[in-house]
Amino acid sequence: MRENQAADPLEARIAARLARLRGERGVPLEQLAERTGISRATLSRLERGEASPTAAMLGRLCTAYGLTLSRLMAEVEEAAPGFIPAAAQACWTDPESGFHRRVVSPPGAGLRGEMIEGRLPPGAVIAYAAAPQAGLEHHIWLLEGALEMMVEGVTHRLSPGDCLRYRLHGPSRFHCPAGGGAARYVLALILP
Q1: Tens digit of pLDDT for each residue in 61-109?
Q2: What's the domain range around 35?
Q3: Do 152 and 182 have their domain in common?
Q4: What is the pTM of this model?
Q5: How confident is the model at residue 1 (pLDDT cuts 50, 70, 90)?
């Protein structure tokens, strides 16, 4: 959490869920720190809601717990209805990069697909060291701006209207080149 700001209800629920996940799995802070590369002190502050997690941190934690970020976000939201007006869709902004994520279709029990809208500011980079679940299918449809998408060492340059589909097994990196507008895209995720 940023200094001198009231606790964001979504961030408070994320913090509580992160603490419960670690408790449910019986993972000591030291072991989680080793798995994620996030210090024990930072993990503790995240679980207590004293610090805002970045997209990279949430990505590493989701990988350690075998969850997609969308699944984690859905778990901290109320039950997912069949119809979700835009005003009710969960949004989150990475305090480090300015990356903005809107959960368009929160996953429901027994459903394998989910969609998010991402907005990455010019010059911003979001990198994930590993897939949260091996074989996770991604479809990225770029709506605005430019996006350099690196999937397991191969870089793809997307322009508006382009769509990239792949199964994720290793690292990935989203980059919006500086000098243009924000990259706005839809990401469809399909569980293996």
Answers
A1: 998 998 888 778 777 765 556 778 888 888 989 989 999 999 898 666 6
A2: 9-73
A3: yes
A4: 0.67
A5: very low
Exposed / middle / buried, residue 31 (Cβ in 10 Å: 0-12, 13-18, 19+): middle
**CA atoms of 152 and 21, how far apart (whole Å):** 28
Residue with tokens 């005003």: 87
Q: Is residue 62 within 8 Å of residue 69, measured between CB atoms?
A: yes
Residue 4, domain member (yes or no) = no
Residue 108 backbone phi and psi in degrees, to 5:
-115, 165
Residue 116 bridge partners (DSSP)? 103, 187
- CATH number of 25's domain: 1.10.260.40
From the centroid of its chain, how far is CA 21?
16
Q: Do both 67 and 87 map to the same domain?
A: no
Instruction: List 139's β-bridge partners, or say none.
Output: 165, 188
- The CA distance from 29 to 61, in Å, is 12
Query: Tokens 């870089």 sit at which residue?
Result: 155
Work out how many domains the chain is built from and give that number.
2
Contact 90, 78 (CB under 8 A): no
Residue 110 belongs to a domain? yes
